Amino acid sequence: MSRIRLTRLFTFEAAHALQNYKGGCRNIHGHSYRLEVTITGTPIVSETHPNDGMVMDFKDLKKIVQETLIDPIDHALLLRQDAPQELVEALRHLDHKLVLTPFQPTCENMLIDFKQRLRHLLPSHVELHSLKLWETEKSFAEWYATDNV
User: Sheet harboring 140-144: ordered strands across?
Assistant: First the structure.
């Protein structure tokens, strides 16, 4: 059987600030992120199966990623959970969409978090192959399963 890779592209808007960082990214700023999720598997071979010929229905992959990763952070401000309490309280008082993370909300750490959450939700017959998160038009981070064996 041939293994096939499927990739689905997602976009979302989010802001973040990097605590204790010495450059401009210590200030709250936003990005138009682009996330590529690639899975691998063998197409289903069963004329009676509704997904005959598919590794996974793109619709199903979209639903998992959208609900698990994108919806919670789209148009949110991501801050490390030990951000200054006055800032957190002010943002909550203003009813801003705030996501506090147990990690510095860098592109790299977001990928690690995405990988950990996605792996457990994919069907058993597919594997997470790679993730690519574009923070800007010219800058991205990648995670590959083969680099982490």
Answer: 98-101, 76-80, 4-16, 29-41, 126-134, 140-144
